[in-house]
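tool_call: predict_structure(chain=1)
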Amino acid sequence: MKTDDSPYILEAIKKCNNGGRVIFPQGTTYVIGTALDLSQLCHIDLDIQAYIQFTNDTDYWQANGFFQTFQNATTFFELGGEDVNVYGGGMLDGNGQIWYDLYAANIYILRPVLFGTIGLHSGSISNLRLRYSPQYYNFVANSTDVVFQDINISGFSQSNNTAKNTDGWDTYRSSNIVIQNGVINNGDDCVSFKPNSTEILVQNLHCNGSHGISVGSLGQYPGSYDIVENVEVYNISMFNATDGARIKVWPGVPSALSGDLQGGGGAGRVNNITYEDISITNVDYAIEVTQCYGQKNLTLCNEFPSNLTITNVKISNVHGTTSKKYDPISGYVVCSSPSVCSNITLDGIAVVSPSGVEDEFTCGDVDASLLHGINCTTVNKGSN
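tool_result:
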């Protein structure tokens, strides 16, 4: 790709900032080959009816994408400011296939996030189609009072190299965020609440192929204090996923999940989390709570319990069928120590494994009397 419409787009947005609207007309194609700094927007609407594709110049994007620090995330652009509304029914295409193939050869490449909402205070992102992101589809960082709605996400690899880390949304250092009324077909978390995500509402999502609606991962970086608090998740349909409701916390000892994802030893808290009305179909674990994320040796994990507490979690009205992966087990609620894990309540759980066993969970270091109706099998702490 040689075309680059970025200068014209930046010029139009500059002219219409502070009270205007930029229209990307239906039936038009735009190509973006330059990292766009849209961080100083104010009182502007971006009406995207068109098809927008980012170039496949992986060398350029690795050198010039906006580095977000957390987990080495980068973004094609940074959309921020005050009172910004993006809508229009158009499509953003991240040209992901070249990235999926490149990542398979080198896990340390910097893959851009398709939609970077960075430092936005009061705004909305709605009625868009997001396709083929190289990494997460949405990264929401240092933002407040933003609504995402009617977003359609899809994009799978056309080669043998899987599209990895294609989370629907990752929220980070943000509060008062709403994510609702979306359809997400991806290969990682449907929504993930990363460190310091508070006052979040997620509702009415159709998630397929994902890793669930996830708190975390948290506690990855020693010396950091991660908070995820006051999160509500309602009315989720989860298909062909590893998890439905999920809380994943790193242990108190450094661990390596993969070469480009390692950590453990950080502190913080998960508090006041609600999951309600979750329908699952062919999901490995209906519910998963772990404080040993990234650590397969449970003996070591229990020797060095998580420095991050989990308190006041309520998960209710989860129903449907699990996959054969852990049959007959359909859930996993295992803390690294009772001292860092309390008041986890399960109510109205009705999940069935392929062999017909209902509500059979692996449990450990958790108050089983609050897991109403669950048949607990005690975890073997000597191994995983």
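agent: Residues 189-383 form a domain with the Pectate Lyase C-like fold (CATH 2.160.20.10). Proceeding to next step.
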